[in-house]
């Protein structure tokens, strides 16, 4: 049983040319002086090309901060972040679709921003809309879509950025369980088809275990990497399978222990 | 088919028809009761005013005045739009300007633009040429609404839109075109709509007060009526001014705004 999810040391070193994203001693402090709040402290992490890494933690553990630092939306206070190539694509907790554009136009937007010609844009948009199952909704506007469809559209748009690295900030947190489950299936399939490197932030333990090659557990105040698990369960995984539940159970126990520890302060 | 269309138009129009009917009813009632001016002239009824409009059209007074006024309204409004947009953009772009100019704009917006009329007359209405003075009053009346509309539209852009734009690496003109202008458009159009109301009021004040021997628009018909003690002419002018104000709003700005909001799912389709 332990073979399936062997705990790993908190700091992992890969071969230098394997690492696609390298975080070294990343620290983020918000505010100054007495009001300073350390959101992240000394976070080191390496992500291999094509790897699916889930960062797991309770709210306030700095996982979203970590993601926005990697996305380049904010600057580190100390430490460094290196990405082997390109600007990462980001998917937010909210779909953040532009309400004045149709689904197709939303998907095309990153390509329009980067001078991709009309034919190429059309082709890519068609392919991506098919990939996320929105072909029939291409000419709808975001407000006409369900929550799940909006996130599918946001996913297609992120993929249209043609970035090797996809950062996902609790993208399915606001969806109902059934919709989330089908999006998990699709994301798993799309990841396998495209070979993207994915960093997926979530507070949902089972979601992390179901999707990730690796689960990185963070503890709050200040945000630190507490522990990592390799998830070697065969894909595609079922949310309520014995293996997924087993590892989720173990991680939850570790999460609780951390929470109790922090509750004492 | 035709009948359905007619029915739909009627269904949309009936609250307005009823409102106008009530208004005309009250007006007619005042006439029946026998309201008089202190000089003993009876209040003209809706029929008298509409008859007078017909007469003014027939004698070739109303249409040239209307054309003149609308021309001024259009030119003044466009100038206010350009100025308001430039100032709004500057305030949005430069944080230092915001603190100072922001509150000044709010002040200017609440300042009745008729107060500019004497100053404009003195400085700009030279040698019987009143156009510049009229434009000045209209611009002062309308541009703060445009600038304020743009500012609040910018302030109401969801923060996530900025994050999204940055995460996609949008910059320069593309950033403005694809994110900022598009996101701010409904608020900007709301400002345009309000600016129309302000510019129409300002124009009437200017035309009414800044007299001229030349063809002087609707405001001068009203002033003419006053100086001749011609009550039907005054009411005909007021009615025309009201109808133009409503028509421009209902035929230009309201559909523009409604279309924008509907496409974004902000009003039921």
Structure description:
The complex is a heterodimer of chains A (265) and B (269). Chain A has 265 residues and is α/β, with parallel strands linked by helices. In chain A, a hairpin with a 6-residue loop joins strand 2 (19-30) and strand 3 (37-48). Chain A folds into 2 domains: 7-88 and 165-263, P-loop containing nucleotide triphosphate hydrolases (Rossmann fold), CATH 3.40.50; 99-162, no CATH class. Chain A contains 7 helices and 10 strands. Chain A has helices at residues 63-70, 103-113, 118-132, 147-160, 177-194, 205-211, 242-263, and strands at 7-8, 19-30, 37-48, 52-56, 78-83, 89-91, 165-169, 197-202, 214-219, 224-230. In chain A, the strands form 2 sheets. Chain A has a 7-stranded mixed beta sheet, with helices on both faces. Chain B has 269 residues and is mainly alpha-helical. Chain B folds into 2 domains: 1-43, no CATH class; 45-263, MetI-like fold (Orthogonal Bundle), CATH 1.10.3720.10. Chain B is 81% helix and 0% strand. Chain B has helices at 2-33, 46-58, 62-93, 95-110, 117-124, 131-155, 159-167, 172-209, 217-228, 231-263. The A-B interface holds A 68, 71-73, 87-90, 92, 94, 96, 98-100, 109-110, 112-114, 141-144, 161 and B 158, 160-161, 163-164, 166-170, 174, 178-179, 182-183, 185, 260, 263-266.
């Amino acid at each position: 049983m332990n073979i399936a999810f062997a705990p790993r040391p908190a700091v992992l070193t890969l071969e230098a040319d394997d690492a696609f994203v390298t975080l070294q001693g990343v620290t983020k402090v918000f505010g100054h002086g007495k009001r300073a709040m350390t959101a992240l402290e000394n976070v080191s992490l390496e992500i291999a090309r094509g790897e699916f890494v889930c960062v797991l933690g309770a709210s306030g553990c700095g996982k979203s901060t970590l993601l926005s630092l990697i996305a380049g939306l904010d600057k580190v206070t100390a430490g460094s972040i290196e990405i082997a190539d390109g600007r990462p694509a980001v998917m937010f907790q909210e779909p953040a679709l532009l309400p004045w554009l149709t689904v197709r136009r939303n998907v095309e937007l990153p390509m329009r921003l980067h001078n991709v010609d009309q034919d190429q844009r059309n082709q890519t948009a068609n392919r991506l809309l098919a990939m996320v199952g929105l072909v029939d909704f291409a000419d709808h506007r975001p407000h006409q879509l369900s929550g799940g469809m909006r996130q599918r559209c946001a996913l297609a748009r992120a993929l249209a950025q043609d970035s090797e690295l996809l950062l996902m900030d609790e993208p399915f947190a606001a969806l109902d369980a059934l919709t989330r489950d089908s999006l998990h299936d699709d994301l798993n399939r799309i990841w396998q088809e495209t070979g993207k490197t994915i960093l997926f932030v979530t507070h949902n333990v089972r979601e992390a275990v179901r999707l990730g090659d690796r689960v990185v557990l963070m503890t709050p105040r200040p945000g630190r990497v507490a522990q990592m698990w390799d998830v070697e369960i065969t894909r595609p995984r079922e949310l309520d399978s014995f293996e997924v539940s087993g590892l989720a159970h173990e991680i939850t126990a570790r999460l609780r222990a951390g929470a109790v520890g922090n509750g004492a302060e | 088919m035709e009948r359905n269309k007619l029915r739909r138009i009627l269904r949309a129009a009936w609250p307005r028809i009823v409102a106008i009917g009530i208004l005309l009813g009250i007006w007619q009632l005042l006439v029946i009761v026998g309201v008089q001016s202190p000089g003993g002239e009876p209040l003209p009824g809706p029929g008298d005013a509409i008859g007078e409009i017909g007469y003014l059209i027939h004698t070739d007074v109303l249409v040239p005045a209307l054309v003149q006024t609308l021309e001024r309204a259009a030119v003044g409004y466009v100038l206010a739009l350009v100025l308001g947009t430039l100032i709004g953009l500057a305030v949005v772009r430069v944080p230092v300007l915001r603190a100072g100019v922001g509150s000044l704009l709010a002040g200017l917006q609440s300042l009745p633009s008729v107060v500019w009329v004497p100053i404009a007359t003195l400085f700009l209405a030279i040698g019987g040429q009143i156009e510049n003075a009229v434009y000045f009053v209209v611009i002062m009346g309308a541009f703060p609404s445009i600038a304020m509309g743009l500012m609040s539209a910018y302030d109401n852009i969801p923060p996530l839109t900025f994050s999204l734009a940055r995460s996609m690496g949008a910059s320069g003109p593309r950033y403005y075109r694809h994110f900022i202008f598009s996101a701010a458009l409904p608020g900007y159009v709301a400002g345009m709509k309000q600016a129309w109301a302000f510019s129409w009021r300002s124009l009437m004040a200017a035309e009414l007060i800044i007299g001229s021997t030349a063809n002087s628009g609707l405001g001068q018909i009203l002033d003419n009526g006053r100086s001749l003690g011609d009550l039907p002419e005054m009411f005909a002018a007021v009615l025309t001014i009201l109808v133009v104000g409503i028509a421009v709003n209902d035929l230009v700005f309201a559909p523009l705004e409604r279309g924008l909001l509907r496409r974004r799912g902000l009003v039921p389709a």
